[in-house]
Amino acid sequence: MIPLSSPDITDAEIGAVASVLRSGRLSLGPELVAFEQALARTHNTAGAVAVSSGTTALHLALVALGIGPGDEVILPSFTFVAVANVVAQVGATPVFVEIDTDTLNLDPVAAEQAITPRTRALIVIHTFGIPAQMDAFAELTQRRGILLIEDACEAIGARFDNRPVGSFGSLAALGFYPNKQITTGEGGALLINDPALAGRLRLLRNQGRDAAAGWLDHAEPGFNYRLSDIACALGRVQLERLDDILALRARAAANYNDLLSKLDELELPPLQVARRTLSWFVYVVRLPRRTDRDRLVAQLAERGIAAGRYFPPIHRQPAWRTHASAQLSLPITESTSARTLALPFFTRITPEQQETVADALSRLLSSH
Per residue in 326-343, pLDDT tens? Predict the structure, then answer.
């Protein structure tokens, strides 16, 4: 079986985790502090707050920024459903808008057209590790007086105009699920530039607990969104290897492009985009329009090759059928989503595995 993704864990990570287990300090300890400091240094931000997942990072961002009932939040429909879920969970209304056809990121022109007097925030997702057009979004949100939130869960290490993604918005979310470039098993983080906001986020992630007052003193209702020191030790060592990890993934993406370049009508992801440094999260191709994608996925599985449909539009998901957005027409999102296919992609994928994938895909596409 060639899996869709696979974490890259070395003896250094295992040793760091074992050290935490031996220490007896498994939560809210020195590894949490060290991981947060390393994340802030990597992204040139004033601070970072580690939490239990990328989803909880996004949820805490909305809560801390006071977004709730009556507010609208602009975001793409072509993304993972978590970002829309957290908007709904705080009582706000997600407003789905179109993507651009090249990067599959939120379209700045479409985003501005969707702004209303109720718009409080715009969430920009750096889709598949390709940075969004951050100069346009920074200018737009400042001019229109709305909050800019970055979802960089797929893009750690990426840059726009040589500036790390995650450093542009009021807050930015990172995710460390096992399919990401680096992992903590489960986990995420928020990047912040406002120390006062960082303090409130730490309070909220820990049941609203006022650490200065005492363990059982709670300043406001909060959440259990802590990230263990075990996870932080794993993430800290992974982060130390980030440059090497990203280089290996970039090499694997280039190898796929070489192997697949002769397949007619198959649209390959760009290896380079102007003003951007990519962070390869997944390798997603766009299939010829005549292809039966579900059949192709099943045929690849029969050959021991995993593949994924990244991403079904959120506004067409069963969970959103009763939402007003279910009636939206987003033709670029819908036509693109129907053709996207994620191939096996991970840090230690071998050239031989990639050749197997490319050969199977070539043979099967010819039959479609």
Answer: 789 999 999 999 999 999
